[in-house]
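Reminder to self: tokens first, then the designed residues, so the page reads top to bottom the way the pipeline ran.
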């Protein structure tokens, strides 16, 4: 095989492959709680990853899904509302740290 063709195939393979993250699906709330004795509390989840040498991802692909699952676990059969996702990043010595923060309100009926 010709050197130029091999290099072209190598570049094509490099350009068409990428990291794939876990999609986060936020379901619609079933029915709002009609009880007047309901309590609304905030819920918070944060996950971070690192991009080593601005090229090698470490823990980046599923940080949104992990942060959202932390919020869902805090809900404990309550209804989530006003869910927000926030991205932030920080320079580090060998790369960049990326963080995803998920905040929401959890409404629970009184027991």
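Designed residues (111 positions):
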């Amino acid at each position: 095989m010709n050197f130029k063709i091999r290099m072209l195939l190598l570049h094509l393979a490099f350009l068409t492959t990428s990291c794939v993250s876990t999609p986060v699906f936020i379901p619609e709330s079933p029915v709002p709680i009609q009880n007047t004795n309901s309590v609304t509390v905030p819920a918070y989840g944060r996950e971070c990853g690192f991009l080593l040498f601005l090229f090698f991802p470490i823990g980046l692909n599923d940080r949104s899904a992990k942060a959202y699952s932390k919020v869902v676990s805090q809900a404990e059969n309550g209804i989530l509302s006003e869910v927000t996702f926030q991205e932030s990043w920080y320079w580090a010595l060998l790369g960049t740290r990326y963080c995803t923060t998920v905040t929401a309100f959890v409404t629970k009926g009184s027991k």
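The mean pLDDT is 86.
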